[in-house]
Design goal:
homodimer; about 200 residues; mainly beta; Jelly Rolls; 3-stranded antiparallel beta sheet; 2 helices; about 10% helix; about 40% strand
């Protein structure tokens, strides 16, 4: 089937202060949708028994999925922890795995954690004004290490890249970023599965 | 020849206040390099006789030119006019013409002017927090309508898109944005050439 291409430009606002768009509805990822993603499942279930909450939001503008167009928007990751583990996005590979992504951080403090199938790990700090380039073939996850501020980035990737969430949902990342003695620390993920 | 692909992530700062990177050197476009681009060539030459100046700066990170990677950076367009015509970038098509580009404005006030070969024109206002999507096959030019502030945007496009400056250098855009009675006004370009 032929893809429908955009013949018109777009003007969409993503507020630089809070990342929100007055023009579109964000997708919200609730804590209850993150079950199994965190190391400390007991604490997660305790937190959920007190009520659900939004962990992050992002925009999907439904761009035509072809290689000539770009998908873009903001992602807003709220502060918080599950036990010692900072709030984070699920993280994913692209379905077309060899496609890159660019993040431009406009607010907050955190990391972009990346790994490829072979097991190479990349960790980049995100602060306002920092662009982080996710090279082709790397799964990527945002991590918010601030106590009170959301981590907000503008992102762009090839519109046909697609999302593979399942690989990370079933295997996890090899590395985790947790708080130890008050500082963010990268550790091996004891739950990581090689297959 | 095989393209070299990035196997590593990048962390490059582009300051949110002035768009400048402490990590890389920008490319500077001088007023003397804009000869023939403005309507009022007499005024341009008068200005140049008093001294040259930077009209805009942008970053080219030299990303590997393949379809799986992205080129990105900031563009900083200074305020000014040549006669009634606002300072602007040269504007260009992509060499791979059917590739899109995204701009995320972080400072200033201006427009993105776009047109395709068939003559469809798109004009989008740029203010802080506005993303403007340049659809595939549209030439694009930034225009700064502020009296005192630079127009600063973060941009991203497919790394193999390339630049075709020559078409616009020889034909011009069909439309121009000039100041009339103190207001930005879109007019037909009397110098536009159909061939």
């Amino acid at each position: 089937m032929d893809q429908i291409k955009n013949k018109q430009s777009k003007n969409i606002k993503f507020n630089l202060k809070d990342g929100q768009s007055p023009d579109r509805e964000p997708i919200k990822r609730m804590l209850s949708q993150m079950e199994g993603m965190y190391l400390d499942n007991v604490t997660l279930n305790k937190m959920l028994s007190l009520g659900d909450r939004v962990v992050y939001e992002f925009y999907d503008l439904g761009m035509p999925e072809n290689s000539e167009e770009l998908a873009y928007g903001t992602t807003i990751l709220y502060p918080g922890k599950v036990g010692d583990e900072y709030f984070m996005t699920k993280g994913h590979f692209h379905a077309k795995i060899n496609t890159a992504e660019i993040y431009y951080c406009i607010k907050g403090k955190g990391y972009l954690l990346m790994e490829n199938i072979e097991g190479d790990t990349e960790l980049q700090e995100m602060t306002p004004g920092v662009s982080v380039y996710v090279p082709p073939a790397f799964a990527h996850r945002s991590i918010n290490i601030s106590k009170d501020e959301p981590l907000i980035s503008f992102f762009a990737f090839r519109a046909d890249a697609g999302h593979d969430y399942k690989t990370i949902e079933s295997k996890g990342f090899r590395k985790l970023v947790i708080e130890q003695n008050g500082h963010p620390t990268i550790i091996n993920n004891p739950k990581w599965k090689s297959t």
